[in-house]
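Final report, closing paragraph on structural work. Over the funding period we assembled a curated collection of sequence-structure pairs, and we close with a single example.
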Amino acid sequence: MKKILIVDDEKMMLKMATRILSKTYEIIGATSGAEAIELFRAERPDMVLSDLLMPEMDGYTLHRRLQELSDEPVPIMFMTADESDESESRGFEIGAADYIRKPLKPDLLRRRVDNIIENLDKITGLRQAATLDPMTGLLNKSASQRELTKLCSTASGALLMIDLDSFKLVNDLYGHNMGDKILIAFADILRRVLRSNDVVGRVGGDEFIAFCTGLRDENEIAHKVEQINRMLLEEARRLMGADMNIPLGVSIGAIFVPDEGNNFEQLGRKADKALYTVKQNGKHGCAFYHEHDRVEPDSARSLSGMQMILGERNKSAGAYVVDFDRFKVIYRLAARLVDNYQKGIQFMRFTLENESESEAFLEVLAHALRRSDCVTQHGRNQFFVLLMEATSTDGELVKERVLTNWAERCAVDCDIESVSGG
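Its predicted structure, as stored:
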């Protein structure tokens, strides 16, 4: 229901106008310009119906003050007992939507207010058509650029460049209608995972962008990326069938504002570099751009500075969780070094019976291991572990600890072998 703010210092006239319009609209009333300004701030009505001649603040001044509070034109209709044409002309000159004389005629008042609201709906519809992507309902490319340019120059938060992984395979294997369904579902996932005050837009076929105001925590962003990937996979299987095996996911490049600047175009290019890093390292994850991470070939840097650049940020308890491609690199290095470890390195595989429990099991597994150990998920229900400086007995103890912490939520098989030297 549309909301109308009625302003009149004569309480009887205020009640009369309220009674005429209250069957169709939500009405809030004020008896002075100062009270109207406070209500406008709090309620943000769709239009204002105001007496023109009031003590302390007349309707003209009220309109100007309300317009200063709003980014959009404020639809206002003046009421007055003044019979002169001069007041009417001045009202229209300052942008009044309409003008009605007292005493109020109920049918005439309702009809004129209805016309203003109808025109307002048309303008809103045109404005939305010019700013929203018709398929997903998110901001379109031009509107995204406009809004994010403003935000990056004034706000603090995280700019995210978002790219769907392997989306082309959906169109190729299942057709463009299914591709459209996936895009619509993905847009809905972004709305659910990101907050209502975050700005989200679609800037290309499978490319999206977002600004998360006030978000400054890399771990929190990484958690949101995990959520998005999990929910996208679930939705894809619902739409395309449980046997769907397209490696569908999302890669995100993130940059903090204003830490790395406040120019949207420059920030976007830097976030794209972080996105490229994700794409080159297994996809389905996120990377963060930091200016001090860039190593110039001729730059002189101390070893401590290089360690800060290369080192892990936001260290968390439990094992080092990586994607399968990174795990392969770590495994190959471990195989080369195994002869130098007195206890050796243990290689473990956990196979989960119920793949729907995979996310929960990975969390339990990672927290049951040491920070020096490494774990990855491969496929839907397999998990591989490298236990550094560990014997086969240590491996059995880890197996027992993991299964105890898992508390038999579903069956788990475990195999253990020593890593062979390289």
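The CA atoms of residues 2 and 25 lie 5 Å apart. The chain has 14 helices and 15 strands. We thank the funder for supporting this effort.
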